[in-house]
Design a protein that fits this description.
By secondary structure, the protein is of the alpha/beta class. It has a single domain (6-237), classed as NAD(P)-binding Rossmann-like Domain (Rossmann fold). The protein has helices at 15-26, 39-51, 66-79, 104-129, 147-150, 157-177, 196-199, 205-209, 221-232, and strands spanning 6-9, 30-35, 55-60, 85-88, 138-143, 182-189, 243-246. It has a 7-stranded parallel beta sheet with strand order 3-2-1-4-5-6-7, sandwiched between helices. Helix 3 (66-79) runs parallel beside helix 4 (104-129) and helix 4 packs parallel to helix 6. It is globular and about 50 Å long. The N and C termini lie far apart (43 Å). The chain binds NADP nicotinamide-adenine-dinucleotide phosphate (NAP). Residues 10-11, 13-17, 34-38, 41, 62-64, 89-92, 113, 117, 143, 145, 189, 191-192, 194-196, 199 line the site of NADP nicotinamide-adenine-dinucleotide phosphate.
Amino acid sequence: MSKEKVVIITGAGRGIGAATAKLFANNNYAVCINYKSDEKSASELAKLITCEGGRCITVQADVSCENDVERLFSTVDKTFGAVTVLVNNAGILKKQSKLVDMTAERINSMLSNNVTSYFLCCREAVKRMSTERGGLGGVIVNVSSGAARSGSPNEYIDYAASKGAIDTLTKGLSLEVAAEGIRVNCVRPGLIYTDMHADGGEPERIERLKSIIPLQRGGQPEEVAEAIYWLASDKSSFSTGNYLDLAGGL
Ligand code: NAP
């Protein structure tokens, strides 16, 4: 049975998610561009994809909220059919801070936006993809971070720990659903040129740190998108439970 190629990319209005949405659309996927609050960026991206002959929809949903995630997936069911690829990409970063100054509110917000969201979206994807539940299989790609390896001391241990959780989610879920036709992998980008560094309070952070990157530069969102696309494609058909580092050698 042939499958319609349908991808849901969370947090796809800007940054790495937007570059990924363009790449999947160029490869004949029906693309769901999820965003939380920046409607303008999401609709401009959708216009661009549509003008170039691609198929996409935008869906506002806060993926840390269970009801929103359920609505996101059921909207895609109705519009394109069941999802075949999930890219868990939405994420937040808060101002640089030592752990000693972090509030419970900050830590809980970090974990619900960066971890609960991925769990909920994985759950909805598995329900639709699993061959044990009548699905046709599928692929999940989680966007983790090099921070899961470094721990980000003095800057954002909360963010780094949230990404460590994504590495463990990737490993555990990949083993849980391997016999159900679903592959689960993750990418771990290093310093990538997006708006996220401004959210951390240092828009020029990559300029400060690029001399310690072996390749001597930050990465572009498109370079991460290519790796996500490869992990989602049949070209990586024997890969599951793996982490692909994209950090210029860091
Ligand atoms: P970005 O440009 O700041 O974009 C973040 C995206 O996530 C935005 O589209 C935002 O939506 C969305 N988002 C945040 N919370 C959400 C929620 N609860 N529900 C739905 N959408 C939500 O960041 P980016 O750099 O592209 O980051 C993408 C992913 O890469 C993140 O997981 C990040 O941790 C990871 N990463 C980034 C870097 C880097 O150097 N940039 C390095 C390693 C890993 P709105 O547009 O509506 O605000």
